[in-house]
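Section 5.1 Outputs to date
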Amino acid sequence: MSDDLICVGTIGGAFGVRGDVRLKSFCAEPSDIANYSPLSLEDGRSFVVTLLGPMKSGYSARLSGVASKEDADALNGEKLFARRDQLPALPDDEYYHADLEGLEIVDTGGKVLGTVKSVQNHGAGDLLEVIGPDIKTAVLLPFTLAAVPTVDLGAKRIVTDPPEGLFE
C-alpha cells in the first residue's frame, strides 16, 4: 500500500438486495467518510460513496458500480482507502494509524524494544501492537501520553515509558 493512502473504513457485505453495503467508518466523525470519496480498495478499484443512513456499527451505503447483492457480498471485508491529501491536517498530538505502523519503539534510555506492527482499538483507547526479536508474544502498549511521551515521525521512532513489567 502506498504511503499516500490511509484506511478510512471497511465494507461489511451486502445490506439488502440492491447492491447497498454495510460500511464501518474509522474517521473521527464517522459520516465524514463520504466526504473523502472516491475511495479505493487495495487492488486499485475505486468507488464514489453515498451514505444512506446510520445503522448499528456504521452506515448503509451505496458504492458506484455495485448493483447487486452478489457484487456487494464480494466486497465483504475489503478496506477502503482515501488519499492523504483528501484528509484534514491533524493537530500535533494526533496521528494517522498508518503513520505509526513500522516505527521503532525505544525506551527512555534508548534501548530498542521492537517495532509497531499495528494500531488496535478495542473500545478503551488505542493500543500499539509491538513485535521484535526479543518479544515472544506481541506486546500491546497503551497509546497514552504517560506510556508514549514522544512520537518522532521524522526519526521514525516512538519513545516509551512502558508500564512496569510490560516488556519483560
